[in-house]
């Protein structure tokens, strides 16, 4: 079968870096072509060249038998190439329907035909399984719901090539299954798909062929059925990973560092109670919409809570603002590290000290030498891969960006770390490093609370798992009883009469919004 898209010998250079070094790619109509590699392997740069965001310095591309050199993203879109990016870019002040059909709004007598717009929107949202009104503002949706809107937007155009970058990073297994059904329908109609993901198990469920990149170079392209997962990892990282998760002995929990009693987010009918002890990693599992992220953000006062009590080291704590949480030794690593956790335009050093500026200032002036020394020490400890602590954080890989956020909270002296989606969008090699770091931090006597949509991750790193279902904790499962099927059954236990995670009265669980979808400000405890 003739290829729909070909790229030959693509080269893309940046100052001091060769992002693509003679890369080849061939994508056929009707196939799901998996593109894998560690962060920094060149995947994103390759997609940018294919879609007109970047221009290659050398090499050629063809699309549907014709020379392909789009001057911008709009030209690539007109050619029939649609991308769903990992980093979402909705317009928050507009509705879901307006975001779906931006610049293509149906008109009647010179005004927007709202009835036709809502009808078209409803059909697309039903296809991806998202049960929200089309008039809902985008800034009231969580990151998982926004991801489904982006997928629906891609389906609204007659794309011939669909590029999906980490599309299931925030989706539950059920939502991922819906996505795979959609992709099978599309490929059955001859649409080609480039699929980028760090979740190896889903690659084998949906992929036909795989192209592996490493250090900006093409390693191999083969039918996926001919490459087992261990070999695929070896091709990606250039070495063997003996096991998926680091080995850690049984935890010996110490004193209770954090106790939460009846913490309730707005819109939730019930409060949440749990505790975290020194030296243990407490996992938080649940469906999108279960209230996991809302609860953690309310605990940190990033969003407003409706009630509840918090104790830190056995003493009552009134947390009205995130700075109060930090002063009490609590740190929050949000699931969207780029939008909410990092100052992308600042260097590593500034990001590390951001929550503890008093340590590196004197008489109101920043001591840049002290800032650099503090960042350098933590960069060595956490093995942050960079050219130095003056490197801009935006240019780091996802794994190294996550380490920078960890470094910030270590520098702030926090001993209770709440970590939401610790390895979202991070490659298999870096995931192992992050998991090792989490275990090391617990072994040093910190209490870690880890929220993750990746159940194998929770099973691999945690000492016990709290299972959320519709805004409440339905089980506290100890490690000896870990079983994926049992935990999933518990997570679904709060959903009755055919209702699932699309119908979430307590928020989406993915962005930390309050239960009614509005942004909270300061948390006021009664």
Order the strands across the largest sheet as they lie in space: 6-9-10-3-11-12
Sequence stretches where pLDDT stays below 50 over 5 or more residues: 496-526
Question: Which structural class do the helices and strands define?
Answer: alpha/beta
Sheet-strand content, in percent, reads 15-25%
Summed over residues and divided by their number, the pLDDT gives a mean of 85
Q: Work out the number of β strands.
A: 24
Span between termini: 67 Å
What share of the residues lie within helices?
Answer: 25-40%
Gyration radius from CA atoms, angstroms: 23 Å
Tell me the CATH architecture of the largest domain. 3-Layer(aba) Sandwich
Largest sheet: 6 strands, mixed
- The CATH topology name of the largest domain reads Rossmann fold
CATH class of the largest domain: Alpha Beta
Shape: globular
CATH superfamily of the largest domain: P-loop containing nucleotide triphosphate hydrolases
Number of domains: 3
Number of continuous helical runs: 17
Textual characterization of the structure:
- This protein has 526 residues and is an alpha/beta fold.
- The chain has 3 domains: 5-237, 3-Layer(aba) Sandwich (Rossmann fold); 255-329 and 415-526, P-loop containing nucleotide triphosphate hydrolases (Rossmann fold); 339-413, no CATH class.
- The chain has 17 helices and 24 strands.
- The chain has a 6-stranded mixed β-sheet, with helices on both faces. The protein has a 6-stranded mixed β-sheet with strand order 18-21-22-15-23-24, with helices on both faces.
- A hairpin with a 2-residue loop joins strand 16 (305-312) and strand 17.
- Helix 4 (114-128) crosses helix 5 (143-155) and helix 13 (368-382) packs across helix 14.
- The chain is globular.
- The model is unreliable at 496-526 (pLDDT under 50).
């Amino acid at each position: 079968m003739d290829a729909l898209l070909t790229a030959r010998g693509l080269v893309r250079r940046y100052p001091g870096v060769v992002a693509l070094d003679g890369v080849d790619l061939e994508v056929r109509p009707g196939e799901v072509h998996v593109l894998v590699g560690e962060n920094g392997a060149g995947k994103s740069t390759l997609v940018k060249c294919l879609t007109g965001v970047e221009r290659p310095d050398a090499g050629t591309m063809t699309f549907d038998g014709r020379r392909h050199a789009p001057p911008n993203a709009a030209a690539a879109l007109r050619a029939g190439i649609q991308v769903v990016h990992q980093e979402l870019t909705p317009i928050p002040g507009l509705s879901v329907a307006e975001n779906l059909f931006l610049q293509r709004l149906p008109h009647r007598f010179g005004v927007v035909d709202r009835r036709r717009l809502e009808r078209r929107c409803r059909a697309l949202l039903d296809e991806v399984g998202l049960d929200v009104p089309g008039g809902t503002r985008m800034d009231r949706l969580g990151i998982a719901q926004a991801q489904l809107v982006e997928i629906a937007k891609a389906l609204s155009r007659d794309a011939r090539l669909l590029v999906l970058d980490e599309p299931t990073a925030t989706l539950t297994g059920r939502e991922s299954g819906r996505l795979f059904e959609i992709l099978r329908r599309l490929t059955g109609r001859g649409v080609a798909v480039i699929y980028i993901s760090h979740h190896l198990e889903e690659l084998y469920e949906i992929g036909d062929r795989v192209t592996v990149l490493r250090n900006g170079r093409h390693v191999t392209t083969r039918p996926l059925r001919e490459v087992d997962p261990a070999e695929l990892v070896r091709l990606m990282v250039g070495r063997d990973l003996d096991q998926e998760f680091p080995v850690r002995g049984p935890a010996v929990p110490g004193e209770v560092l954090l106790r939460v009693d009846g913490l309730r987010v707005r819109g939730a009918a019930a409060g949440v109670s749990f505790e975290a002890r020194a030296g243990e990693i407490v996992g938080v599992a649940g469906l999108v919409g279960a209230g996991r992220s809302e609860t953690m953000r309310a605990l940190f006062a990033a969003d407003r809570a409706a009630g509840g009590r918090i104790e830190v080291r056995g003493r009552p704590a009134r947390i009205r603002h995130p700075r109060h949480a930090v002063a009490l030794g609590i740190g929050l690593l949000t699931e969207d590290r780029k939008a909410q956790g990092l100052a992308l335009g600042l260097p590593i050093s500034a990001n590390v000290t951001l929550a503890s500026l008093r340590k590196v200032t004197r008489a109101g002036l920043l001591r840049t030498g002290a800032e650099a020394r503090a960042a350098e020490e933590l960069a060595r400890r956490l093995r942050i891969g960079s050219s130095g602590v003056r490197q801009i954080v935006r240019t780091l890989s996802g794994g190294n960006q996550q380490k920078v956020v960890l470094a910030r909270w270590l520098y702030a002296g926090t001993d209770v770390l709440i970590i939401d989606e610790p390895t979202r969008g991070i490659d298999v090699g870096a995931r192992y490093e992050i998991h090792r770091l989490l275990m090391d931090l617990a072994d040093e006597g910190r209490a870690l609370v880890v929220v993750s949509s990746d159940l194998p991750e929770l099973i691999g790193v945690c000492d016990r798992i709290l299972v959320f279902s519709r805004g409440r904790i339905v089980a506290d499962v100890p490690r000896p009883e870990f079983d994926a099927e049992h935990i999933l059954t518990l997570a679904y236990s709060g959903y009755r009469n055919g209702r699932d995670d699309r119908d979430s009265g307590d928020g989406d669980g993915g962005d930390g919004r309050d239960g009614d979808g509005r942004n909270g400000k300061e948390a006021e405890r009664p």
